[in-house]
Fold each of these.
Amino acid sequence: MHGWLILDKPAGITSTQAGGVIKRIFGQKKIGHAGTLDPFASGILPLALGKATKTIPYLMNSSKTYNFTLSFGAQTTTDDTEGEVIATSAHRPSLKDIQSALNLFTGLIQQIPSIYSAIKIKGKPAYARARAGEEINMPSRQVKIYDLALEKYDGENATFSVTCGTGTYVRSLGRDLALHLESVGHLTMLQRTRVGQFSIDNAISLENIKKIGDTPLACFLLPIGSVLDDIPAVSVSFQKANKIQHGQAVEVSKNNCLNISAWCDDKLIALGHVQDNLFYPDRVFNI
């Protein structure tokens, strides 16, 4: 099978483990995922099956939306409930203080990812070095926050929604927000609700997938081209489609373009680029 399965991953398992369940249930050999979710986080996990894995790069750079709950009063080593407490504070910010701070954490901001992140340092994940007792100096990085909104606050726990660009660490965002408000905090909940055009409203839970029995996997798959809405497209004839699928360039009525998809009779043929009105295939779909 080839296409996208939009999974609602539960907390407690890794993205790889979730993909493994799908492999076993449906006998799939090739599965990839766009945007890893660690065991603490739940929510939308787009799984690319078969030749859809060729389109993963077109989703990886898409913006993402999360819901997260920040608990004030304790900072942990991992910035969530899985770490050890390293600092406490009796101060609790007011509702007005939180709302006033949101603009400072919107737009292009600098953040330092947790030393327990999966960022590789000299070829080894930071979390592996941290757990081995190594001293780590994580470099600051610039990330983009498109929108940050407070959903509710009870005086101890604040729930937010955030839409952000690739590379953003939501745990670090919560940690830095608490520190700015002259307190400390850690995340008690993290749920991804959107990746690119895929939404949690259209996702299927792992529990429901396990219950579907003999229902064909195709009933739950979205087309391979579902992730290509943001790039230009060109339509070609059957004759040109045949040449493209053999790796040949064909003439098209399109200006120079670095990323473009080629379609024939509503079927995705290839991804490639256009130069001097010639379409050159970079990834071909012989389906």
Note: Helices lie at 15-26, 57-60, 95-101, 126-131, 170-180, 206-211, 238-244.
Amino acid sequence: MGQIHDYDKILTRLTIILQRLYEGELLSVQDLALEFNVSTKTIQRDFNQRLIRFPIEKQGMKWKMQSGHAITKERSPEEALVLEMLGNIAEGIGSEFGVKAKSLFSKLQNNTKNPIYSKTIIEDISDKLSLFHIIEEAIMESKMVIFNYNDKLRHVHPYKIVSFEGYWYLYGEELLENKLKTYYFKGIDHLQLTNETFIPDDKTYKILERAINAWFEPDKEPFAVTIRATAEIAKYFHRRPLASTQRILKTYEDGSMEIEVLVTAEREILHEIKKWMPDLIITSPKALALKAKSIADSFLNRQIEYLIQ
């Protein structure tokens, strides 16, 4: 029997169980219940509900990872690389989750030296992990959720938990307004999982794929915006497109280029323009180009005011 430990967090227990499954162990419900000082019903719930989306299966009275999914001690360079990258990303997710996930990846790697450093800053949602789990369950089972958001009761068909620039959002359809929306995760309160199910619409997923950032408005019809990048930054849009809808219209002799993207809101593209000023400008539509100029003028005036104080 395993040594009794005081594991009082579900996440800790699940990550340790997963680690051992991925390393090829056969795990007994009774032994795990004793080791983690919980009931056998709790461990059965772990396997039958909380870990059901992982490639696990029952063999006799024990559980194991399905054939082809166990990670052995000897790994290919590609497998080690993936683990290192995931470990670095996990480190930025949040204090509680990040530490536990990072510890798990380290054990899977069996390697104290990590040559990769990823500066991925992700919002800490450690205090929202229980809410995260409920919404994940609602998405997987296509169930409606009810919650308070901005002092208003929402009835939502949840589609995806999304991270935009390190901040977490719920993407779904608000039934009372019949609109697709994003909800800032930490603004969700008094969440309830209902038994009412829905049939997901594939179009809803495709709309999300076009999003550039959190300012996109999924309920709006997209429109084209033409922007021009200087030679100094054009290479970055070759390496990683500004959006999935990016289309290169023309490359000039000086190395600059003109590209087109589809956006659903002015703020969606203006947010990106501000990041790259003055090397990225809007050339069409003209009204939007004038708004970008107004933002640049406002910045310049404030900067001058500060300098002459």
Note: The first strand starts at residue 27 and ends at 28.
